[in-house]
Design a protein that fits this description.
This protein is of the alpha/beta class and 226 residues long. It has 6 helices and 11 strands. The termini are close together.
Length: 226
Amino acid sequence: MDNLQKPETTLIVASSVDGCLVGRDSDDLDSNKSWKHSKNIRGVIQQFFDFSPHTSDVFNLVSVATVIRIGIENTTFVPKKEDVRLIVLDEDNKLSLKGIKNLALSVTKLIIVTTEKNKFSSKSYPSNCHFLRYKKKIDINHLAEMLWKKYKVKKLTIQSSGLFNSRWIEFGLVDFLTVVFYPLLVSNNGTPMLIKSDLFTARPLNLISIKTFDTNYLLLRYKVIN
């Protein structure tokens, strides 16, 4: 792992105070409730832009559930191009041809990470759309290296599922952790920000900064000691 070439990676997690992922339509305080009404992809990941660098070498990686929630598959969706470099993890091939085209028309550069079950031809999409395919399961180590070598990704911010969050950390691929704590206690109604795994080992963190915003919200940024 020490010789792996990869982007400088920040995992961004929106969490309830009791450690559950926040991203469902389950509470009035959940800012994600408005995502499905957004008219372009920038509205989907706006909160993550607020906590990451705004430079041309930063790519934003999100789960497929994030882009589906905003209605990217909807026929009324009107694409509007934004200066966003987006990577979508779609291991289960949930995006349709129309959804992928809408995404490609909405961002500067789009990389779809999927499996060979996705048989859509790359020729069907705008030139800014790229595919990285795996046989059955996304190889996180290989993905990180390919993003660095093939796509020249220098800085990467991630918002993914609890399972993928754990896998990124397990393999020592996360350099920084940004946690946005929402003023919520959700108990069994939420999903853990990290899914338990036998491979997971404890990681010490160094606190870099603390920020409060919108009165009740807290942002903590850590350096991950791998």
